[in-house]
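User: Hi! I'm working on a homework problem where we have to compare a predicted structure to a textbook description. Could you give me the structure for the chain below?
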Amino acid sequence: MTSRLRGLTAKQAVVTVAVVLVLSAAGGMVELFFDWHAKRSQVQAQVSQIIGAIDGSAVEAAYQLSPQLAERVVEGLLDYEIIQAARLQDNFGDLLAERRREGQAAATSRLAELLFGDILVYRRDLVRLGAVGKTDVGRLEVRLSPQAVASDFYARGRVNVALGLARALGIVALVVGIFYAMITRPLLRLAQAVTRVDPGQPGRHLVPALAGHGHDELGELVDSLNALLTSSQRGLNERDAAQAELMALTHDLERRVAERTREVEAANEEIRSLNLILKAENVRMGTELDVSRRIQQMVLPTAGELAAIGGLDVATYMEPANEVGGDYYDILHGENGRVRFGIGDVTGHGLESGVVMLMTQSAVRTMITGDEDGAERVLDVLNRTIFNNIQRMGSDKNLTLALLDYRPGPPDGETDPGISSHMRISGQHESVIVARQGGAIELIDTMDLGMPLGLVDEIGCFVNEVTVALRPGDTVILYTDGITEAADDRHRLYGLDRLCDVISANWQRPAEAIKDSIIADVKAHIGAQPLYDDLTLIVFKQIAERPALAEPVN
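Assistant: Happy to help. Predicted structure tokens:
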């Protein structure tokens, strides 16, 4: 009994049982994996189909800020058994509607969360297509029920395990029987025959053929013992043939490399010729950009114009990031001490942005010189002029633009005797900074005072105006985002807070000194880094005692 347990048949049976069980377990795991993967894909496709079906309604609910429509959307989602909870927010992050299926949250299994936790939550940004492009209007979030997702997977898993075990037992019995009849027993007979071969004269007593195995692997094994030397010689012959073929391939490769080398040299020569052409073209373009830069500097307000403005201490600064900047500013002195300031920023920089800037400067001067007074009218005409020209240029440029109308005297209805003047602000640009007595900073947000010019042909309905009262000594600072977004070598931005700190620390100084302090601090921040955007700054300060009004400079 002990010898039988140690025999080949017993060992083969044990190994077969172990191998089949391992393979069955591995096959079951693979099958479970594919079932799990298929279930995930099915769930994702189903959820995408559900969300896609209600996407339009969700977008409208978020766009209209309608809680009633949002409630219907989330209630419709809970009609699907697979969905446990849903919520709908607008683009401000405010909750419009939220629903959760009762009785499921507490029953969540840890295994279901482990298997499907990463696909239980779906978030979709709600985007509405309009005349000006895509607009983000809100977000839809859906959470799936782990039990609903995993129930079918559990049931199929139990069936697969039972079937796998049954298959394993059947395969073990079948394989053991077949292996014994077809392999184990003939091998035992072959082993007995080999032991009878004379080691000194192996050719005298050849291994006899096994009955029934003359043309299978066992028969081939017997033939291989007698043909070993012949097979070795055949291998040597094949090796020599392979070496000859390798040498031929090596010669062919060397020939192809030589041909490619000649082609590369010809290509390099062509590249050198193109580089010479490109160098000449760069010289020509540099000349054109130099002329454009000089024209841009020529249309800026002169020091004489700024000095002639009575009652205000004015300082300005502009430094383009590239050959031609995309920033714009202008100061126009009118009658009775009235001063109009304009500041804008064209997207990008370079020659094309400089052309849009010059176009804006000419249009603003034309409107204001024509004594056009209404902010809505001025900005609407400016926008249509710039929009039409940009369309003609085939460009995608646009610009932010703010207009300030400074006037001596308090605004209408103001009774505070300490207020000596006021300004009216319209148009969308960076925040206007007002430094009050003592260095207190006041920020006037211009986001709701207009919209970028050149995007659409009609903006009149978006233009608004705000009035800011000024006292003697108050300082107003206008700037472009090239200052607040100036970056150091670690990509840290200069920022609005730091700009306000510099202004607050220097508010009592003259406008020129405040301007110099800001620019010096920006340059210290960026260090050796190049400018990535234009730097433009306007500082004007109420003189404590207003002198007699100066004549306007034409």
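For your comparison, note the following. Residues 275 and 281 are 10 Å apart (CA to CA). The radius of gyration is 43 Å. Good luck with the assignment!
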